[in-house]
């Protein structure tokens, strides 16, 4: 009787973490973000197709293909970088000659490196830059309490948005470095996979670039892996609250309580990217740190998943194994989906972006006209 009352009193001090409502919120945000990405993709498709048709070299009767729109888009991107270079050159004319020369040279080197990185690489570098910025905020002592509250996901906090912000947050420079290296290494493969999925889509819709698809995939994978981790930790906390006051279960409850920690990191999203690549190209050989020989990526990912399952069984706490498994499952789901969900989003918004495409084209023409006048 005394134990029961103690258990009730202890449990009453804590609100059990939700699972359904956070899941609905995460799903809603993931859908909204993917929808925004699909709309932006449709606009870029329209701009690239318009640029191609009005270039004076388009004579074919069929609609432009993904490859043709991508080439047209890259011409637009290169023209924008050339315009920036010309503007910088004009601004530096009043500077000392040596300083202006080296500044212009540095800009050209960085611009060429950015353009030659490839579309997938540029997206990866952008995500890495965000991750690095968040990590630098962690390095400022006065910001650490703020970062701990808003950039780690704690199942006890009652916050849902931290399932997203924690995806861009890293605990150490090594943590950031490993994740960044993995993201940059597999981003180009993921880019080509998503491009191939859209090319095979039943709708026949072509796409100037799959970068928006990749962004939607990355954020959705990060949210899904964070949610899987949240559910696992919420289940542990419920187990603790049920058993902490029972002498025969107290030891197990305390062990479970010790494993409830704030989570952070992009590992789940990167796991999804690697898993998608493994399903698409299972026999591709990859090199893994500490293993001196190349192994098929399918076998490597299978081994990583087995280690995470073993880590859960054994109670290892160095990594968030549930987030890793959630990411791997999301990558498998994306492979099974074959891009159909993304294609559906693009079809749904295709007819709604005509005015935005027209406005974007007019804006580009105005900028081009100003550049020529200058």
- Helical segment tally? 15
Low-confidence stretches: 1-13
Order of helices and strands: HHHHHHHHHHHEEHHHH
Mean pLDDT across all residues, rounded?
Answer: 82
The helix fraction, in percent, is over 70%
Distance between the termini: 86 Å
Classify the secondary structure makeup into a structural class: mainly alpha
**Strand order across the biggest sheet?**
1-2
Major pleated sheet: 2 strands, antiparallel
Condensed summary:
This protein has 15 helices and 2 strands. It has 374 residues and is mainly alpha-helical.
Q: What's the layout of helices and strands?
A:
Layout: H1 2-12, H2 20-53, H3 66-91, H4 97-116, H5 118-138, H6 144-150, H7 162-165, H8 173-199, H9 211-243, H10 250-258, H11 267-280, E1 285-286, E2 295-296, H12 297-314, H13 321-337, H14 340-350, H15 354-373
Antiparallel strand pairs: 1-2
